[in-house]
User: Fold Lactate dehydrogenase from Actibacterium mucosum KCTC 23349.
Amino acid sequence: MGLDPRLTDIVALRERARRRIPRAIFDYVDGGSYTESTLSENRVALDRLRLKQRVMRDVSNRDLSTTILGQNVPAPMMMAPTGLTGLVHPNGEVEALKVAHRQGLPFIHSTSAICSADDLAEGAGVPYWFQVYIMKDRDFTRYLLDMAKRSGATTLVITVDLVVNALRHRDAVNGLSVPLRLTGRSVLDGMTKPGWALRMLRAKRVGFGNYAGYLPKGTGTQSMAKWVATQFEPLLTPEAIGWIRDAWDGPIVIKGIMTPEDARLAVDYGAQGIVVSNHGGRQLDGGQATIDALPAIAAEVGGQVQVYADSGIRTGADIFRFLARGADACLIGRAALYGMGAAGPAGLEHALTLLRNELDVAMALTGCRSLSDISPDLLIQD
Ligand SMILES: Cc1cc2nc3c(=O)[nH]c(=O)nc-3n(C[C@H](O)[C@H](O)[C@H](O)COP(=O)(O)O)c2cc1C
Assistant:
């Protein structure tokens, strides 16, 4: 059975995902921290930027391809690291890696994933990028890096904007826990989505895959999650970053940069790429939109290292806005998860294709034939 033809944009995929997966999981994907003001600011700032219509030029052949850390990609996109993807759809991370690989796009595996890095090697067996948090327990961090290396990770993405966990009210109210705890509320929630519950019976895992092998056998998943929550290193000194840089033999990307000063620091630390990101509004509440932070950062380090960006992208025109403001490529977070939640791997594939097609149309109507034609003067801010 093909996809519902009414799923014509990310908004429709989001709505379908809302109806198809339990509320606690949808809210985990959809929500932001505290008042969700950074979450909404990401969107408001993107909407404020108008694209300039340009006509009477030859836009018959458009080329969306570029290179991301030396890899040729058909579009300036990659999949953002997102925790718990394997609860949105069974074996979600393995399925997502397969889709990204088919589309020729890099996939970044989250430390807080459900499938482990080893599961990726077993289920997909293709190269990918691994996202890590620096943990207080360096043996634990090294354990994660070793698993990443042996399972085919080529590039390490170090996320630096989660030195403490910000609260997401929706998760607290829903009592979200991993694995999902059976309470009256969660059972009711699951019962309203029997299709999801049935599908999840096929899941290889329902707990944190990357953590499972480190703690002594028999450690309950709840206590594992509690322990990990205390592990995020708040002391991100030069020594800490230097330690992880030396522990990883391969390219490094630093994710969670919002100022030119921090971008410069990341370059000095030896990063080959940075991700301008506010974690999709899930960490610092009351923060600036990523799209507004980007120009000064691109001016500071663009050309020296690759500059990637994310947060708030729901259309291909949004990707256009990020590229016009200096990004080399974008990470796709919730838009991909809405696709997965709406229709599994086929929905994810559809979400990525929609974004790509929308970017292509935005380029044609602004008179661009290649990504290098996308410049800041094609944006109007009112
Ligand atoms: C459900 C969810 C889980 C996430 N988990 C992680 C994670 O484990 N590591 C990380 O670096 N970023 C994580 N992020 C942030 C994303 O990588 C990305 O920065 C963000 O989703 C971009 O915003 P957008 O979803 O509005 O596009 C997560 C985001 C979401 C929505």
The CA atoms of residues 81 and 110 lie 5 Å apart. DSSP finds 17 helices and twelve strands in the chain. Residues 28-29, 42, 80-83, 110-112, 131, 159, 255, 277, 279-280, 282, 310-313, 331, 333-334, 337 surround flavin mononucleotide (CB under 6 Å).
